[in-house]
Design brief:
The structure is a homodimer. In chain A, about 75% of the residues lie in helices and about 0% in strands. Chain A is built from 11 helices and no strands. The termini of chain A are far apart. The interface between A and B is large, with 57 and 57 residues. Chain A binds a DNA duplex (30 and 30 nucleotides) through helix 1 and helix 3.
Chain lengths: ~220, ~220
DNA sequence: TGTAATGTTTACCAATCGGTCAAATATCCG
DNA sequence: CGGATATTTGACCGATTGGTAAACATTACA
């Protein structure tokens, strides 16, 4: 008889790692498009190329699949913000943060949509992560930005809304890709788009944050 | 016997209008949270406070409900962009466009999420609207912005990405409300948030778009 | 090689899905 | 009032849902 999955205390066989990888890859495909409620195990099974009970041998429930996926993706997703360096030059830090986020939107659009779907639907499965690790990280970086503003290195601004606006503008290209393509025309959706977006956003944020000469009042 | 719904050529009774209104209101509640696939007629029926067959008396299919909802919301949703005036002052036009979009995110978050869900999931039901009316409208306004840049009234920038960034930053407060609240702390989610966001975004876009003194090169 | 543990599949389950139907009820109007 | 029309509902249908049971196949390893 098969050992109940709950009893497995540690990774064992090579085949387990491979199959779980295969499943999560398929789950990312499906969840990122339809969200949790709209996705079915059968869809994931079909994409993964294995039978439904076989999926459920590795992940006991649909929720378990979703959770494993979220956990795995969340860490890497916050990497760019974590790399945000208090000691660096403000302008180049912001610039490279934007570029990194934009690269992730280009290279990992499914991951972006996975989170977007989840948050959009009220974040029923990741509320704790948002209020915990995410908030802590943002709080920390907000302090950095505030210090920069206080030191006169960048214009005074609300650091939280600055971070929100960088998130939203960059992730927009992953989450709303269909709309972006529809508006720009499908021919113009290749490599050029990325560079245009990067150029625009860097200009917007860098110029928008540059310290303004105090108007002589 | 009841007249088949398809045969109804024109609005008739008061009760029809009321019930359809009631249904679409409930459908907005449900679709905006779970997306099309993730929503069920039973959920909508429960929210609407009527039986499932009764819903299906007014809208023959789930798709018909969704479509009616989209059609109704799309027009008003594009209103702010339509109001963008080529004859106006660029700075104040951008400013009031941002504010209007932000007001809509605050006052009609369900409508924003309805579209976000739909686009996120590949826009299977509104592809034509995106490539047609939406693209046309954006093209038109992009020309206006380009003309402003050419006339030296604002900094040179890609008008499409400018519009995208205004969309994304403003709608972010509706679509990712849970995340915003989690990061800011739930206490700080009331009226103050709106004003802070408005102030930040206006500063960002206005300063970012201001014509820069050409660096002496 | 044998055998125990691991991995896979077929058949199936109850619950829920979108949707239908006919009968029951409410409304309108002469 | 009464009959025609419009509205509402309970019972039901086949398909799909998440998930299970157990037989079967494969692998690891002594």
């Amino acid at each position: 008889m098969a050992i109940p999955r709950a009893a497995r205390t540690q990774r064992r066989t090579r085949i387990q790692e491979e199959k779980e990888e295969q499943i999560l890859e398929a789950a990312l495909d499906v969840f990122s498009v339809s969200g949790f409620r709209g996705s079915t195990i059968d869809q994931i099974a079909e994409v993964a190329g294995m039978s439904k009970p076989n999926l459920l041998y590795y992940f006991r429930t649909k929720e378990a699949m979703h959770r494993a996926l979220i956990d795995r993706v969340l860490f890497t997703w916050l990497e760019p913000l974590r790399a945000f360096d208090a000691e660096g030059n403000p302008e180049s830090e912001v610039r490279s943060y934007i570029r990194r986020k934009l690269e992730m939107a280009r290279d990992f659009p499914r991951e972006s949509r996975l989170f977007a779907n989840e948050v959009l639907q009220g974040a029923p499965h990741i509320e704790d992560e948002l209020k915990g690790p995410l908030k802590d990280l943002v709080d920390e970086k907000a302090d950095v930005i505030r210090a920069w503003a206080k030191a006169g290195k960048i214009a005074k601004c609300d650091p939280y809304h600055l971070i929100f606006s960088i998130w939203s503008t960059t992730q927009h290209y992953a989450d709303f890709d269909v709309q972006v393509r529809a508006v720009l025309g499908q021919d113009y959706s290749g490599a050029g788009r990325f560079e245009d977006a990067a150029r625009f956003l860097e200009q917007l944020f860098i110029d928008g944050l540059r310290v303004k000469p105090t108007p002589s009042s």
